[in-house]
Design a protein that fits this description.
The complex is a heterodimer of chains A (about 625) and B (about 425).
Chain A lengths: L5 H4 L12 E8 L5 H11 L17 H6 L7 E8 L2 E8 L8 H9 L3 E7 L6 H12 L3 E7 L8 H12 L7 E2 L8 H11 L12 E10 L3 E10 L8 E3 L5 E2 L3 E5 L3 E3 L8 E5 L13 E4 L18 E7 L5 H13 L5 E7 L3 E8 L2 H14 L4 E3 L6 E5 L4 E4 L10 E16 L3 H10 L3 E9 L2 E9 H5 L2 H8 L5 E12 L1 E8 L2 E2 L5 E4 L3 H15 L7 E7 L2 E8 L15 H15 L2 E4 L2 E4 H8 L11
Helix pairs in contact in A: 13-15
Chain B lengths: L31 E7 L1 E2 L11 E2 L9 H21 L7 E8 L7 H15 L1 E11 L6 H9 L4 E7 L3 H6 L9 H10 L3 E8 L6 H13 L4 E6 L7 H7 L8 H17 L3 E4 L2 E3 L6 H8 L2 E5 L4 E5 L15 E6 L3 H9 L5 E7 L1 H12 L6 E2 L5 H12 L5 H5 L7 E2 L3 H5 L1 H8 L2
Parallel strand pairs in B: 1-4, 1-11, 2-3, 4-5, 5-6, 6-7, 7-8
Antiparallel strand pairs in B: 8-10, 9-10, 12-13, 13-14, 15-16
Helix pairs in contact in B: 1-2, 1-10, 2-3, 6-8
Classes of the chains: A alpha+beta (about 625), B alpha/beta (about 425).
Chain lengths: ~625, ~425
Amino acid sequence: MPIPGPELRARIEPNATAPELIRNFCIIAHIDHGKSTLADRMLQLTGVVEQRAMRAQYLDRMDIERERGITIKSQAVRMPWQLGDTPFALNMIDTPGHVDFTYEVSRSLAACEGAVLLVDAAQGIEAQTLANLYLAMENDLEIIPVLNKIDLPAAQPEKYAEEIGKLVGVDPDDVLRVSGKTGEGVDALLDRIVETIPAPQGQADAAARAMIFDSVYDIYRGVVTYVRVVDGNLNPRERIAMMSTGATHELLEIGVISPEPIPTKGIGVGEVGYLITGVKDVRQSKVGDTVTTQVKPASEPLGGYEDPKPMVFSGLYPIDGSDYPALRDALDKLKLNDAALNYEPETSVALGFGFRVGFLGLLHLEIVRERLEREFNLDLISTAPNVIYEVDLEDRTTVTVTNPSEFPGGKIREVREPVVRATILTPSEFVGTVMGLCTDRRGTLLGMDYLSEDRVELRYTLPLAEIVFDFFDQLKSRTRGYASLDYETTGDQVADLVKVDILLQGDKVDAFSAIVHKDKAYDYGVQMTAKLKELIPRQQFEVPIQAAVGARVIARETIRAMRKDVLAKCYGGDISRKRKLLEKQKEGKKRMKTIGSVEVPKDAFIAALSSDAGGGKKEK
Amino acid sequence: MARLPEGVPVPDDGALPFRAAAPFDGGAGRRFGVYVHVPFCSVRCGYCDFNTYTATELGGGASQVAYASTALSEVALAARVLADAGLGDRPVSTVFFGGGTPTMLPASDLVRILGGIRDAWGLAEDVEVTTEANPDSVTPQSLAELRAGGFTRVSFGMQSAVPSVLATLDRTHDPRRIPDVVRWAREAGLDVSLDLIYGTPGETVEDWRTSVEAALAAGVDHVSAYALVVEPGTKMGAQVRRGLLPAPDDDDEAAKYELADELLTAAGLDWYEVSNWSRPGHECRHNLAYWRGDDWWGIGPGAHSYVAAPDHPAAEPVDTTPAGVRWWNVKHPRRYAALLDESRTPAAARELLTPDDDQLERVMLRIRLREGLPLDALTASARTAVGTLVGQGLLDGRAALGADGAGRRALLTLRGRLLADAVVRALTD
């Protein structure tokens, strides 16, 4: 077994490993392409985790991660490996795989010298993987292309080896083939990592500089900060300093993960490890920041640090208004573990007290909402996600709009919206469909390339608002699930945008207001009023539903009054059943929000605000 | 077929969960009625989810021939249970034979069961004894025999006067027979009611008008009109689910209800319950007892029973005295017969009604009546909803103020009758 014995092991002890014996790498892969399974196999092969202690997908800790098979929080695991007579310490840095977390990915990549590009041999590369691959190449990382799941009957290793060989610029024969499931080829991959990924280079005797690539809140330990030491050395005797803020902290613990935290006497140049300072809020330990020591501080921080910037906003409201304090507490707690989460109290006429919450993107939004509902047992309504608009008024002032209902009604000079550069990978048969969708969403084609005979990469500039509004679902449904998408924000553009309001019985429902392009206002109005007509049960009175731009009504539907709501027969044998039915109906009433005098089921809000174009199912 | 509710087990001897401590006052405030379920039909109608069986569906031990004897053994058990609870000394105010088709049994069997009830508790002097009947299962002789045996009232399942509508409902009788059977029953000295169904798929408003007018022309003093409810698990339920028949439409049913109310009222039959109209004095007192919360015992497979806790607290104090108990018998006639054969209660399960359950039921049932629900029977918070409901045109404003001299009460308007469930929800929040 290529696991180093005790004698060799002494050469790769933490804080005492020569940089040339260190390999820092990450795995770039699409969500379901088997990264976690491969990581599990590596942990087993290197003896870090024993077979029987193996829990599937060891590294993904949170329930949501495990269920969705995605990694939100990265970690770094130190694994021993031996090639020839030489022992090596491999640090596998786990990266988030989703577009919302591009910045986090970039920091993880910056902590590595190489990357394993892992592609499902039955599916080929996906847009997000491609985007991360480009990011890795820009960071000068050594790329090791690998096809996974070669055990699958549907695998087409030749085809996809050709494709990724072309992308990375290697011979298809040099593309490794592994199966995370069976373990086949994984030892060869570990060998390849040692052989081809460069050892870290840094000044061992320089002032300490370590880059934070992740920071996680742990209820028992406080914030756990993951760092890659670039220069110098960190040790428990010296106070550390955060270079972006100048804040200093005592080091309560320092160590490496293998795969559980192991305290050490320090971590040296080129190494990856964790720090615990007793800090309670991840905001004091920001991803991308540089850690140095208080005694001998570095003069220049490492580059690349940015503050997380929310791109997508949504209002979160408790169904039961009395849950508002619980929601606030829950957000305060989540914030400890999520530096990108920010929120402000907000009031909605329709929904009561809640928060306007900023997210990195749609997945981030979904994860936060799910955690609030699951971990804090809250029943929530979230409004349709929107982007930030900059509105210049005629009086030369500028308003930043994060909530459509606050879109100014007065004289507007111009409105600017954020735009993104989107990369879409699609089988060539769908190119026309995808281009149609992008044009419909106000996209501008930047370029198009054939990755292989039947796969095309399309590059577009698109308004972020269009992506936020069901673009991904549409893309998936129009390409039978084959297309994939990635995007990064690139700036803003002036656009002809208006606010469409929705009125129930003449009352504006602020939660349904939307900012849309002028040419789409009518469609939005017609769609939304029709959807609401389906979703809102008949009331005892007629309920008009209108869509309006300013004072001009652009669409109208009417929910006719309910005329009959009575059980015809109620004799001896009907009474128990009937009473239980009434109790159930009364229970259901608690899940209603009253707007004006109209009772709207929570589910109607969710369905109307959700981006799925099909609308909700009709109540009886 | 309609499923039984969920409940808790009933002791083998059927004992009630409470007992009157002092001698019961004879039920001055609370009458006692008996329902007898006859679970037989010649054919099963496509819309029906009642507990009933055709001859070919039933075999040994549960035959129609033996049914009267089986039912009588439950009457004996009922008499014992009520006596043990100190609630035995009440003459029976009303008896109602329903089904199924009670007239599938020979009149002599029905009279024999009534005799057993008389022997067990005695019948009140003004006792009302009703049987349901299919228009094609009676003759002048059978009706006369029922009258002679103590029956006072017959309710015919007319459903519709329109052949195509009857065909959709799987009804086998000839609508032209209705005037005859009504005349025979009246001549026999029986009070007569006709049951109608509206909202059958394919029925037009004119069809419905024809049916109501035909019922009135037959010269009855009582009409029940029910909106068709498509129940899951019935043949019609499956047809609607598969799209072979359109589902009944609420708006159509509402229009037909209003039409019925108009025609019946004009003919001198006033509503006294959401789905029932009669000339004054011809109300079905047995059914009124359900809505007023009186005690009743249901004999027969699948039958429900209800006994309110006696006003006096239980002799042996328990943690919580239920406000009442409702139980229901096993559904299958064979199982029903077998249990009684072993001298065990045929009850499948029961529920002990909490004071809250009881309050909800009282509102839910009494609001259906023309006599209305006294406002002092409502909780304080529910009373605050009355004004709103009056404003919405669902409750009668004069009745709410007691301006008509009958005490302050919640009385449904015509619109309120059609939205009665919404009113109940508002009054029980």
